Amino acid sequence: MIYKNIIGVDISKSDLDIASMKSVKGYQMYKSINNKTQILQCFKRILKKEKLKKEDVLVVAERTGIYTNPLLWSLVEEGYNLWIECPNQIHASKGFSRGKNDKKDARMIAEYGYRHQDKVKLCELTDDNLVSLQYLQSERELLKREEAKFKAQITDHKGYVKKGDYDSRKKRYTSILVEIKTSLKEIEKEIKDIIKSDTKLKHIMTLLLSVRGVGQVIATDVLISTQAFTKFTTARAYSAHVGVAPFQYTSGSSIRSRNKVSKRANKRIKRNLHMGVNSVIQAGGNFEKYYNRKLKEGKEKMVVINALRAKLIHIMFSVVQNNRKYSEEHVATWT
């Protein structure tokens, strides 16, 4: 669909800079406070002043984490065409530029929307339970990182500072670690309760947990990051997102690099998949057979493990898309 008017929005914590695109070089600038009521009032003024209909307007913005939510809640609920794009995608397409300010960024976003209308993916409101799970998961990861820091301090300093100083620090850090563990237990309970209360999410979790090597952490990660398997429709696309899909790197006759994975990846999920694959290999079965066969063929260990990480993703997508639990009786032709 070709939109008659493109509006670019640069989002910050406190306010929005809005650029309504009249032509490739003509813009009308607006400003709004970043809350639901003010955003709606601002866009109503824009439509009235410029005599536009919201079905003819495309609003483009960068994803900026939680600061995007007021724009998402206000516009999608009112039926606006909202496209929230990855900021890396927008900045990679802008070419060479000097200087930076919010108004300039809003115009750049509007121009990106104008030039890439064929790539538009309109936003829909995510299920409330999935939003809560994502928020809890981010808190869990934050606490996990803090827990690792305090544990490292206790371990690394022993024997290298005065005993009295060390003991007093250890006492303080141990009490903090107790609080962190209590909070982690509360978060994990909340996550489980939300999943149990939602029939769809509970069913998907049951399917995922039927796969060997997929525990509660991996299953929850995959459920949230795929938005209950609606954000990614293929295992290959999700493998690329996680960073286990190999890509070709060649140019003419001079550059002939071997296929390798991209560093643009969700490394936390990739790390968890790595541990899941290792546990399945040690338990024996199809993964162990494949692993040993490839090593005998001369493949590098990490290349084989990466292939098994991708295989695990394909199995998870398969059980969900076929709505059937994983069965060990299934004969795997890839081993």
- Indicate the CATH topology of the largest domain: Nucleotidyltransferase, domain 5
| Spatial strand arrangement across the major sheet | 3-2-1-4-5
Number of domains: 3
Mean pLDDT score: 91
**What's the CATH first level of the largest domain?**
Alpha Beta
Tell me the number of strands.
7
Structural commentary:
With 335 residues, this protein is an alpha/beta fold. The chain folds into three domains: 5-119, 2-Layer Sandwich (Nucleotidyltransferase, domain 5); 128-197, Orthogonal Bundle (Helix Hairpins), CATH 1.10.287; 219-321, no CATH class. The chain has twelve helices and seven strands. It has helices at residues 36-50, 69-77, 87-93, 102-115, 128-157, 163-197, 199-209, 216-225, 235-242, 267-283, 286-296, 301-321, and strands spanning 5-11, 15-21, 27-33, 57-62, 81-85, 246-251, 255-261. The strands form two sheets. It has a five-stranded mixed beta sheet. A hairpin with a 3-residue loop joins β1 (5-11) and β2. α5 (128-157) runs antiparallel to α6, α10 (267-283) crosses α11 and α10 crosses α12. The longest helix is centred in the middle third of the chain and has 35 residues, at 163-197. The chain is globular. The model has no long low-confidence stretch (mean pLDDT 91).
